[in-house]
Write a structure and sequence with these properties.
Layout: H1 17-25, E1 29-33, E2 45-49, E3 57-59, H2 88-92, H3 102-136, H4 155-161, H5 174-184, H6 193-209, E4 248-259, E5 262-265, H7 302-311, H8 315-326, E6 331-335, E7 338-342, H9 346-357, E8 361-365, E9 369-373, E10 381-390, E11 398-406, E12 439-440, E13 443-444, E14 468-474, H10 476-482, H11 490-505, E15 509-518, H12 520-536, H13 541-552, E16 557-568
Antiparallel strand pairs: 1-2, 2-3, 4-5, 4-16, 6-7, 8-9, 9-10, 10-11, 11-14, 12-13, 14-15, 15-16
Helix pairs in contact: 3-5, 7-8, 8-9, 12-13
Length: 571
């Protein structure tokens, strides 16, 4: 929780529960949403209060608690949208498909074929029987048939020789004859077939459990076959995998960061509770590889990047680290002074942990506010207001967030005396008159900050504080396609591409970060033209939000890139 919340954080609900219930009991409104459907990751709706003349409040999947969910709270107040059989969980309840081994499928087909042959043979023999009885009915007295001619025969046949024989003048029906032959041929299907197969499956399962090569000694874990479908293992020729979580451990770690073409290493040791990175090893001890094939020897630590952002007022370094910390949708849990992150994807968790290693700590999060701790401003807690969020999708391969840093009386935007960036749609990339751009590995760099002649300050890069920033991250091809052709140094982008290709060949997952500064008028125009209509729409909201995201994610200034490692499974 935030300590001493500033004036812009005002509690909306009264603390007294009785007053809260009274307020909620008097609330009248309407929820308009899509019809009941089975899509648990989709919800589109609006909330309109009867006593509110303002526009409707947009509702999305983030505002919905699915049936069967557990919340860590003593009580809550809400509105039931779907009930009974209309809930998403009920609509998704269906009989699971039956999973059979290939041998089971073959056996079932063979049994069905044998039964078909049995039926055909029973039909054929029944027809032959009826034909023969029609031809030989006069002579079949010994099987109980009798016609009118036989009634005049000797009583010896009827009474003396076979006194218990029940004679009949009618033949058995076709159906009774067919059932008789079907029963006679029942031994066509061996009853012990499935029993024999189950015994074979049991032995195969035991052989898998006894396999020494599949025993994991460090954790004393043997192989455990939970399904009899192990018979298919010997028939596998190709394995198709999406890599994450199948061939890998799905444990993402930020290993490298690239800013100004320089590669920075992220330490393996976890950061301390306060957010500061662990101390590096003594100089006389050479760094060792951690078994993954990567060594940090000769690479500067990411903490050096944080120091550069403060002491040299490097806007690129500051924005890159702030993007790691802010451009995400993670949920912050603060328990007993320890900050833990719950991320939708392991990549986001790795990025936030990497920022934490550089002392850029995301310490609290609400629906509209991000509270963070950075080395700038003497370590004071800083807060950013979330203006809009453009979620990731597979078509754009990007996600972005609009933020603006909030100020209290002690840290006003004009306190440091530095010139603010001009009100323009994207970052200033032209050096002020009389200033010399800093050098990036021998290449003249395009400055991002307002002035270059200021002395080093512990305030850090501050010319963008109070500005509306679009922080964006995504795949390299998608980000470079959205980068400005005039506001990025071509040589630096070529160097970045080369670094990313090297990391990709090493099996690392790369992301590129970009920034754009919006003026008040520009952001208001984008919000009114794209974002607000999309949120208020009940139909085709996703497509409209995608259009709004594409309209905003243009003319980006690339500030850096990351490389994340996902270790392979042991063995």
């Amino acid at each position: 929780q935030l300590q001493r919340p500033p004036a812009w954080m005002v509690e909306a609900a009264p603390k007294d529960e009785r007053k809260l219930f009274d307020v909620m009991a008097s609330v009248r409104g309407t929820v308009e949403c899509d019809a009941p459907n089975e899509h648990i990751n989709s919800f589109t709706g609006t909330l309109k209060l009867a006593a509110d003349d303002e526009e409707a409040v947009p509702l999305s999947k983030d505002h919905v608690v699915l049936r069967g969910s557990s919340l860590h709270t003593d009580w809550l107040l809400g509105v039931a949208v779907y009930t009974g059989e209309d809930t998403k969980l009920a609509l998704n309840a269906r009989t699971p498909p039956q999973k059979l081994a290939r041998l089971d499928k073959v056996t079932n087909r063979v049994v069905v074929a044998i039964f078909g042959c049995q039926l055909a043979l029973a039909l054929f023999t029944t027809g032959m029987k009826d034909t023969w009885e029609d031809d030989e009915f006069e002579n079949l007295w010994y099987v109980g048939f009798r016609n009118h001619a036989q009634s005049s025969r000797s009583a010896y046949i009827e009474d003396a020789r076979w006194p218990d024989l029940e004679l009949t003048r009618t033949k058995p029906s076709f159906g009774w004859s067919f059932c008789t032959f079907l029963i006679l041929y029942c031994n066509f299907i061996p009853l012990s077939l499935y029993v024999s197969l189950e015994l074979c499956f049991l032995m195969l399962v035991l052989y898998v459990n006894w396999d020494v090569l599949m025993y994991h000694a460090p954790t004393d874990t043997p192989a455990l076959a939970r399904s009899p479908t192990v018979t298919d293992l010997g028939q596998v020729e190709y394995v198709f995998s999406d890599k994450t979580g199948t061939l890998t451990r799905n444990e993402m770690k930020l290993r490298r960061a690239i800013v100004h073409g320089t590669v920075y290493a992220v330490p393996e040791a976890p950061p301390t509770a306060s957010g500061a990175a662990a101390a590096p090893p003594p100089p006389h001890e050479p760094p060792e590889e951690d078994g993954t094939g990567f060594s940090d020897a000769g690479l500067p630590d990411i903490a050096a990047l944080a120091e550069r952002a403060i002491s040299q007022s490097d806007e690129f370094a500051a924005l890159f680290l702030e993007s790691l910390m802010l451009c995400n949708t993670v949920v912050v849990e603060n328990k007993n002074g320890t900050v833990k992150y719950q991320a939708e994807s392991p990549d986001e968790g790795a990025l936030v942990d990497g920022a934490k290693a550089a002392a850029y700590v995301l310490s609290a999060r609400t629906e509209h506010v991000l509270a963070c701790e950075t080395p700038a401003l003497g370590g004071a807690r800083r807060a950013w207001h979330i203006l809009a969020t453009n979620e990731f999708d597979n078509d754009r391969k990007r996600m972005s967030i609009f933020v603006r840093e909030q100020f209290d009386d002690d840290h006003a935007p004009t306190r440091d005396g530095r010139p603010m960036l001009a009100e323009q749609p994207s970052l200033s990339l032209v050096a002020p008159e009389g200033s010399a751009p800093p050098s990036r590995n021998g290449v003249d760099a395009i400055p991002l900050y307002g002035g270059a002649g200021d002395a080093p300050s512990r305030e850090g890069a501050s010319s963008l504080r109070g500005k509306i920033l679009l922080l964006c991250k995504g795949a390299d091809n998608a980000m470079l396609a959205a980068a400005s052709s005039t506001r990025n140094d071509a040589a630096s982008l070529d160097t970045l591409r080369g670094r990313l290709d090297d990391f990709a060949r090493q099996g690392l997952r790369t992301l590129v970060f970009g920034v754009r500064v919006f003026s008040e008028a520009e952001f208001a125009a984008w919000r009114d033209a794209y974002y607000a209509p999309a949120l208020a729409s009940l139909s085709d909201r996703d497509a409209m939000l995608k259009t709004a995201s594409i309209a905003a994610e243009t003319e980006l200034t690339i500030v850096g890139a990351t490389a994340i490692e996902d270790n392979l499974q042991i063995g």
